[in-house]
Amino acid sequence: GPIAGFTAGTGPIVLLVHGWGERASFLGAFIEPLVAAGFRVIGIDLPGHGKTSRGRTNIFDLANVLNDVADQVDGIQGVVAHSMGGGVTAVALTEGLDVNAVAFVAPASDFEHVMTKFETMFSLPPRAMEGLRRQIERRFGRDLWARLSLQKLAADFDIPALMVHDRDDNQIDVADSEALVAAWPGARSVITSGLGHDKI
Asked: Which residues have CB under 8 Å from 31's CB, separation 6+?
């Protein structure tokens, strides 16, 4: 169905991809500088989020949406993605998303690690987490965690990448970005302090 979003500026397109539970406007601070640099910015609310909030979704559906958007606008120059949006973008790249560069802000690169963080953040009992893992694996296969390892996927990527991460991020460890940079040919990182997961 239709995807809610916005566009600003003219020129080569940069797509803004928000994280889980967010919306395109969360990345609004990127609009003005990108437009000033000569880009057209497109921000979308992914399915299950923001004004495109209908129904359930998963990372593979979200990755398909990125490819659909790229097809509709005749190509995307680059992507700026936050948090889980980095994982969505990486999966989209494996499924044919053709861009010249990406910038990932506080990316989740190890989804098994994300599950552990999720368990800790919400004080979920081990039994509940085990049930959740089993349900996910029944739906997507036991090899899901390997298929979603961004470090493994990144080894085959041949576009420049920038990883920006804060040392004080309490949702996704800065080590996730460091591992991703080590695995991704041509990637580099910028590490900040004091901004956490969202203010960055």
From this structure: 8, 9, 16, 41, 43
Amino acid at 31: I
- Cα–Cα distance for residue pair 199/197, rounded to 1 Å: 6
Q: Distance of CA 192 to CAs 17, 41, 118, 196, Å?
A: 21, 25, 23, 9
Tell which residue, 79, 78, 75, 73, has the closest CA to residue 19.
79
- Kindly state the tokens that stand for 51: 């004004």
CA distance 90 to 81: 10
Q: Higher-confidence residue: 142 or 105?
A: 105
In whole angstroms, give the CA distance from residue 54 to residue 83.
21
The reported pLDDT for the residue numbered 149 is: 87
Decide if 200 contacts 105 (C-beta within 8 A).
Answer: yes
With a cut of 90, say whether residue 98 has pLDDT above it: yes
Q: Would you give the distance in Å from CA 102 to the centre of its chain? A: 10
What 3-state class would DSSP assign to 55? coil
| Phi, psi of 139, deg, nearest 5 | -80, -40
For 26, half-sphere exposure in the C-beta direction (CA atoms, 13 angstrom radius) is 25
Q: What pLDDT digit, counting tens, does each position of 18-61 carry?
A: 998 899 999 999 999 999 999 999 999 999 998 997 778 888 99
SS3 for 150-167, per residue? HHHHHCCCCCCEEEEEEC
Q: CA-CA distances (angstroms) from residue 84 to 18, 30, 32, 140, 171?
A: 7, 17, 23, 18, 11
